[in-house]
Amino acid sequence: MTTDASGTSPVHHAKPNTQILRYAAFTHDPAGGNPAGVVLDASGLDDAEMLAVAAEVGYSETAFVTGRDDAARRFRVRYFSPLAEVAFCGHATVALSVALAAQLGPGEIVLDTPAGDIPVDIRVDDDGTALATLTSVPTRSRPATSAELEATLKALHWAPEDLDPALPPHVAFGGNDHLVLATGSRARLADLDYDFEGLTEVMRRHDWTTVHLVWRESAERFHARDPFPVGGVVEDPATGAAAAAFGGYLRTLGLVTSPARITIRQGEDMGRPSDLLIDVDPENTRTRVTGRAVPIVQGAGDVGRY
């Protein structure tokens, strides 16, 4: 531990022997998707050291395995952004699961997370890339209040008429809370220039992990962007936790009347295209989220903090 320039505040650094893997999730291309750090043995790290690792990696999330039972294929996991711990992270779950499959082989595993148990099924596709399908904790969704909506629109520099009236604003949960806002045009979604500090304050006040901005291309295909200022990054290129929550949103609104697979395209506007698949069943409160993950070779696609 060292001190900052003032000589008063402690600054932790990652232990030099900590092995950090880097994966891009929800893509087959290391230059796409959402990068995540993965630490397969964090049993010797305390909270401050895990936060230091996440900050030095600089990605939106790093997953830490703090306990493991390889025989039972059960793993205790925590997630840290560069600024704080979060209860659940979907893209880091996909990255971690693929990394574990490289050690243990494909099949089913269970992750014991602060949000609850997350079963994950990992398989290898015909082209040799690994896919992971996580099953979320039970989802829920409620209408956003007028105060929540007004403050968020102000921080986003959006107007009420930018919203799609057929998809009302909701606060949706799939391991953590996300405000879901649907816009009526792809152009509005592409033009994202928000007040970083202002949105951070709103999100901290309501304990939201991201604001999940979506545009509906069709009933089976949506485009999304996820501001993540509370995690220290402007935007997430693929947000599995928000996708899980969005599945609950669609189910709550009755927009899925039979089991359906929906594609969410994210990250395109920031040059890191990502594809997230969600399976939503109107009779099941849990969302299944599927995505690929591929290793990142440092110096080739290792984008650091956005």
Automatic annotation (TrEMBL):
It comes from the Bacteria. Transmembrane segments: none annotated. Keywords: Isomerase. SUPFAM superfamilies: Diaminopimelate epimerase-like (SSF54506). Signal peptide: none annotated. InterPro entries: Phenazine_PhzF-like. Belongs to the PhzF family. PANTHER family: BIOSYNTHESIS PROTEIN, PUTATIVE-RELATED, PHENAZINE BIOSYNTHESIS PROTEIN. This is PhzF family phenazine biosynthesis protein. It comes from Streptomyces spinosisporus.
